[in-house]
Specification:
- By secondary structure, this protein is α+β, with helices and mostly antiparallel strands.
- It has one domain: Ubiquitin Conjugating Enzyme.
- 40% of the residues lie in helices and 14% in strands.
- The chain is built from seven helices and five strands; from the N terminus they run H-E-H-H-E-E-E-E-H-H-H-H.
- A five-stranded mixed beta sheet has the order 1-2-3-4-5, covered by helices on one side.
- The longest helix has 19 residues.
- The chain is globular, with a radius of gyration of 19 Å.
């Protein structure tokens, strides 16, 4: 009996693990659900011969295998142009254990044009690059696009989506100073940053805690 119970418990723990990558059926609450609604746009995500379809399918396979431990991604059965990413804030930063949601939409001419990203802020200004209305600073997206084209050694170079999502976790949700510049490594921001930055980081940590409890 003990062996059976132990086996059942082990199976339960395995099946209840939250997958890092998954395909879900309901996209109704996605910010970009009304995007790509023309017949021409829809065809780009249905026709298996289009560049958008082939590239996104390739990206799904990469995301399924290469997502970092702190990132979770959901794609949608009937809307392959939509994607939702959740990033868990890293330890040693003002965003420690916070959950940060991003809705992403691929354009019909992807990968010629980069995806659009919206931060689901719930009204909080958590970061200089992420606005309360969900706007993501354009220069940040430009940075990820440029880095993707020039960083030939990156394992994520073949996936623009993975590169952008990973950059959000490593660059945006990092130990930032009062002006939003990442000048300290995670775990050392209080030591390396000047007093003004520590005040800023303390305020961000409080916002993060409030967001998690609301």
């Amino acid at each position: 009996m003990a062996a059976i119970v132990s086996g059942e418990s082990k199976k339960s723990a395995t099946t209840s693990k939250f997958p890092h990558f998954d395909v879900v059926s309901d996209e109704s609450d996605h910010y970009y659900v009304k995007s790509n609604q023309s017949s021409k746009d829809k065809k780009c995500f249905i026709d298996t011969n289009t560049s958008a379809y082939r590239t996104i399918m390739k990206e799904w396979k990469i995301l399924e295998k290469q997502l970092p431990e702190s990132i979770y991604v959901r794609t949608y059965e009937s809307r392959m142009d939509l994607l939702r990413a959740v990033i868990v804030g890293a330890a040693g930063t003002p965003y420690h254990d916070g959950l940060f949601f991003f809705d992403i939409v691929f354009p019909s001419d992807y990968p010629k044009q980069p995806p659009k990203v919206r931060y689901l802020s719930r009204g909080y200004h958590m970061n200089p690059n992420l606005y309360p209305d969900g706007y993501v600073l354009v220069s940040t997206l430009s940075l990820t696009s440029t880095s993707l084209d020039t960083n030939t050694t990156s394992k994520t170079r073949t996936s623009r989506a993975l590169f952008i999502i990973s950059t959000f976790g490593e660059f945006i949700l990092s130990a930032v100073d009062a002006y939003g510049n990442g000048n300290a490594t995670a775990g050392h921001y209080q030591v390396n940053n000047p007093p003004s930055s520590r005040v800023h980081n303390s305020a961000q940590f409080q916002k993060n805690s409030k967001k998690m409890l609301s």
